[in-house]
């Protein structure tokens, strides 16, 4: 009994530690430490995306070339700051507002954030889902025609990546996209599309 009494305080501390672990306290601290360590999987990502229209009255295509800075988060999440240039081509098939043309060809700038969830990671293969929230600024050119030059640019989808070395990964992905000015007056001719792209990721 005397020996057991000596170990009783330690056993109680172990009991509290196990309770904390079951509630997710200890794993959360460990993940937070990893997320800010020098060994976290930060990366630069360079991508090219092609999107084709899905609305019959908005037959415009879009091409975007972007760069992103990515940081690993706990629980297989990743956050990105991203931006680049985009080009749209085509014209509305419906009537634009009075006094407006139908041509929706623009060249502009994208910028915003992305969130990725790495669902499956097996050896060199990585399967992920992601969502991206950006703006698209057509530099004075409304997109689509009759709308505004600044729009929200939303995308969601997923893809697969393959490690070709310790530092480099190639990725292929699918995105569904939506562009809208959020109801900004006087008109909000939305555009929706889908497509895919390829990316090269450099981890450091």
Structural summary, described in words:
With 204 residues, this protein is an alpha+beta fold. The chain folds into two domains: 1-36, no CATH class; 40-203, Porin, CATH 2.40.160.20. The chain is 16% helix and 52% strand. It is built from two helices and eight strands. An eight-stranded antiparallel β-barrel has the order 1-2-3-4-5-6-7-8.
Sequence-ordered SSE layout with sheet pairings:
Layout: H1 2-22, H2 25-35, E1 43-53, E2 61-72, E3 77-89, E4 106-122, E5 125-137, E6 150-163, E7 168-180, E8 191-203
Antiparallel strand pairs: 1-2, 1-8, 2-3, 3-4, 4-5, 5-6, 6-7, 7-8
Descriptive tags:
204 residues, alpha+beta, Porin, 2 helices, 52% strand, disordered N terminus
Shape: elongated
Major beta sheet summary: 8 strands, antiparallel, barrel
Termini, distance in Å? 56 Å
Number of domains: 2
Beta-strand portion reads: over 45%
Helix count, DSSP H or I runs of 4 or more residues: 2
Estimate percent helicity: 10-25%
Model regions low in confidence, pLDDT < 50 over at least 5 residues: 1-40
SSE string = HHEEEEEEEE
Number of strands: 8
CATH architecture annotation of the largest domain: Beta Barrel
Mean pLDDT rating: 82
Query: Could you say what the CATH topology of the largest domain is called?
Result: Porin
Structural class of the secondary structure composition?
Answer: alpha+beta
Q: Strands across the major sheet, in which order?
A: 1-2-3-4-5-6-7-8
Write down the CATH class of the largest domain.
Mainly Beta
The Cα radius of gyration reads 24 Å
